[in-house]
Design brief:
Blueprint (H helix, E strand, L loop, with lengths): L3 H16 L8 E7 L4 E4 L15 E4 L5 E3 L8 H10 L5 E5 L2 H9 L8 H4 L14 H5 L2 H15 L9 E3 L5 E5 L2 H24 L8 H9 L12
Antiparallel strand pairs: 1-2, 1-5, 2-3, 3-4, 5-7, 6-7
Helix pairs in contact: 1-7, 2-6, 3-7
Length: 233
């Protein structure tokens, strides 16, 4: 298979979503991109994870959206993934889940505020919720319009998709992304964990305030950007 390595990584990433408790039944998917080859690979539509095999992974052209390898029908969320790859050129992987706490914020139409350093290590501020989609957007090109409202949210709010690698689609569920499909899964895990901690914090102290700018900067920038010093070189 021409895209063997990419398909192997995407297959593992999808199984990791289940292992991490972010996905039940078939509620979610992960995709990975090979930018040099101009393709992305994604889980097939409706295939139970316990039956998901390497050969089931579908490869598509990022530019045209046409299937270039695989016989299965790709995930119904494929147009959303494709739009994110087209509009966020630094993204190399996307993970979509219906994780419990993250989805609760989506349904409440609330951002996940950055209340502490665990959140700040991966997200440089609040994880935003999109606007609700119009009836027309839902009825026609729903999955593509899901991608469009995500990009619109980041553009209108002046958010850098590299600094906030995730979003809450209003009344729907979270998407996360990263430079690789592995990083996208990691960010999906952190998004859910941050949502759970935020819910717990609000239960303990309803008037809890976001983290200070100084502490936000310290924790995010020590891991990301040109002056990062966390970890090994």
């Amino acid at each position: 298979m021409k895209y063997q390595s990419l398909k192997e990584r995407v297959h593992r990433a999808n199984l990791e979503l289940v292992k991490s408790g972010l996905v039940v039944l078939t509620w979610g998917n992960a995709s990975g991109a090979d930018r040099a080859a101009g393709v992305m690979a994604i889980k097939p539509s409706g295939v139970p994870y316990e039956r998901l095999g390497l050969d089931d992974i579908v490869v598509l052209s990022i530019e045209s959206g046409e299937v270039v390898e695989g016989s299965a029908r790709p995930s119904s969320d494929t147009p959303t993934h494709l739009h994110l790859y087209r509009q966020f050129p630094a993204v190399g992987g996307v993970a979509h889940t219906h994780s419990t706490c993250g989805t609760s914020f989506c349904q409440a139409l609330r951002d996940i505020p950055c209340l502490g350093t665990t959140h700040a290590d991966n997200f440089y501020g609040a994880i935003p919720v999109t606007r609700q989609m119009t009836d027309a957007e839902i009825e026609r090109d729903y999955e593509l319009n899901t991608g469009r409202v995500i990009v619109e949210c980041f553009e209108k709010r002046g958010i850098d998709s590299a600094q906030i690698p995730g979003v809450l689609v209003a009344s729907h569920a979270p998407f996360a992304w990263g430079a690789t499909v592995e990083k996208a899964v990691e960010n999906a895990i952190v998004l859910e964990f941050s949502a759970q901690m935020a819910l717990n914090s609000f239960a303990l102290s309803p008037k809890v305030l976001p983290i200070s700018k100084a502490l936000l900067d310290k924790h995010f920038l020590r891991k990301h950007g040109p002056k990062a010093y966390y970890g090994q070189t």
